Amino acid sequence: QVQLVESGGGMVQAGGSLRLSCAASGFLFMRYDMGWFRQAPGKEREFVAAIKWSGASTYYADFVEDRFTITRDNAKKTLSLQMNSLKPEDTAVYYCARYRVSYSQGSVADWGQGTQVTVSS
User: Fold this and answer.
1) What is d(CA 27, CA 41) in angstroms, rounded to the nearest whole number?
2) Which residues pair with 99 in a beta bridge?
3) CA distance linking residue 82 with residue 92, whole number of Å
4) In terms of Cα–Cα distance, which of 23, 109, 27, 115 is closest to 73?
5) Cα–Cα distance between 4 and 26 in angstroms, integer?
6) Residue 82: which residues within 8 A CB-CB, separation 6 or more?
7) pLDDT in tens, 53-75
8) Alpha-carbon gap, residue 30 to 7, rounded angstroms
């Protein structure tokens, strides 16, 4: 009964910003590392960012280049991804994910349904 529901996607011009949110339920949110992944049409799903259960450590893919910030609110059981300076190549479906054991272990246990992000030039 784990549920991860993303929201906040949409269309934005290059250089603009979007904030994605993920509402979690059905598990002890505060005990799990969480992450964001994305997938463009015809491409493999790729890692974007992750955050430890406590929020003390964060991890980002190289392409983020300091443009994105992952945060979590354990009281509200929500995960967020603030995306600034968006580029057309950021266009993809973005997925919220719960890690099965930890970010370091790498295995994802659950995925959200995804939210579309489209960046126009």
Assistant:
1) 31
2) 108
3) 15
4) 23
5) 9
6) 17, 19, 68, 69, 70, 71
7) 999 999 999 999 999 999 999 99
8) 20
